[in-house]
């Protein structure tokens, strides 16, 4: 399982430094590398718009 960042993302960047395995990168919206994500939920905890969701 991995978190996926939805189109709700407003590109605030808050999640990226919170990821313990550096799975989040900036793009058109921020993106989670599913192979690297350890499903910790830290990104979802800091996101102001609840864009990261477990899939
Ligand atoms: Fe990184 Fe955890 Fe979010 Fe996965 S759930 S992208 S490991 S902060
Ligand atoms: Fe997008 Fe939420 Fe990450 Fe901000 S914290 S970049 S809104 S996913």
Automatic annotation (TrEMBL):
4Fe-4S ferredoxin-type domain: residues covered: 1-25, 28-55
An annotated Gene Ontology molecular function: 4 iron, 4 sulfur cluster binding
Function: Ferredoxins are iron-sulfur proteins that transfer electrons in a wide variety of metabolic reactions.
Keywords of this entry: 4Fe-4S, Electron transport, Iron, Iron-sulfur, Metal-binding, Repeat, Transport
Required co-factors: [4Fe-4S] cluster
Protein name: Ferredoxin
UniProt source species: Natranaerovirga hydrolytica
InterPro entries, alphabetized: 4Fe4S_Fe-S-bd, 4Fe4S_Fe_S_CS, 7Fe_ferredoxin, PSI_iron-sulfur_center
Cellular-component GO terms for this entry: cytoplasm
């Amino acid at each position: 399982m991995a978190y996926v960042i939805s189109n709700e993302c407003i590109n605030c960047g808050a999640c990226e430094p919170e990821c313990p395995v550096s799975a989040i990168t900036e793009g058109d919206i921020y993106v989670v590398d599913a192979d690297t994500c350890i499903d910790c939920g830290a990104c979802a905890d800091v996101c102001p718009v609840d864009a990261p969701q477990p899939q």
